[in-house]
Amino acid sequence: DATARLWSLDTYTNVVCYKGHNHPVWDVAFAPQGFYFATASHDRTARLWSCDHIHALRVFAGHLADVNCVRFHPNAKYVVTGSADKSARLWDVQRGSCVRVFTGHTASVDAVAVSPDGRIMASAGEDQTVSVWDLGSGRRMLSLTGHTGPIYSLAFSQEGTLLLSASADETVRAWDVKRSSDASDHPLIVQRQHSATDADAMDVDADPKKRDADPKKRDAAGIWKANRTPESDALLKTWRTKSTPVYSIMTTKRNLAVAIGAFTL
Q1: Which residues neighbour 122 within 8 Å (Cβ) at sequence distance 6 or greater?
Q2: What is the distance between the alpha carbons of residues 18 and 190, in angstroms, rounded to a whole number?
Q3: Closest of 235, 257, 232 to residue 246, by C-alpha
Q4: Cα–Cα dist 193/61, whole Å
Q5: Are 118 and 98 spatial neighbours (Cβ–Cβ below 8 Å)?
Q6: Nearest CA among 176, 138, 139 for reference residue 156
Q7: CA-to-CA distance for 122 and 109, rounded, in angstroms?
Q8: Which of 36, 38, 103, 192 has its CA 20 to 30 A from that of 83?
């Protein structure tokens, strides 16, 4: 309905309805302080709002197609957007102007994330590639390959050395984005012992036979037939679900990773 809504977690009721977009809203993200939030829409804009105003404070216009995703910089002075026009953009919150344009993807950008130190940004989408960018220079630092389906979500670890990606290829992958010497010992990727009944996820790096056991990758739109994609050296770990595309990934302050998908029988 082209609106964003604020809900009370105490009464489970709608508190405020924010109107301004002309088409469906695809994403919403709160600023680190929690009072401001941003939305991304099919109307090719992102917008900045405050909880106590029903109208947008800023309109970020410049993308040539849907704005699919939006995230705040840790200092809340900038927002990052990803678009179906194959680009990501960095916007100045105070002026509402575009500061940098990140190009290089060959398909829609569906996910963006900013490291906790605010120095690097990651983007990914339908070209199955994760790009890591230096926000200061706008230069692409890394191009990470290995996924065999669209990438829906990205999240950094709390210290910013690891990047997690979630994909339609039914996997979550961990990448070393700063080439740290101790990244392989990070708590998020330390090998855990699997019991015979632990069928929710399995380590596909441990046994090459498992990697090729099921070449079909499914998502809600159909079946992905995975041609083997060269895996970047920065890939540290791969976790596979049984048959579930992974739509969202996030990390907690204690460096636990939470992945969300849609289970289908």
Answers
A1: 112, 113, 114, 115, 130, 131, 132, 133, 154, 156, 163, 177
A2: 43
A3: 257
A4: 49
A5: no
A6: 176
A7: 10
A8: 36
Pair of tokens at residue 218: 């499914």
Structure-block tokens of residue 92: 């100045």
15 token code pair:
């508190």
- Cross-strand bridge partners of residue 140: 133
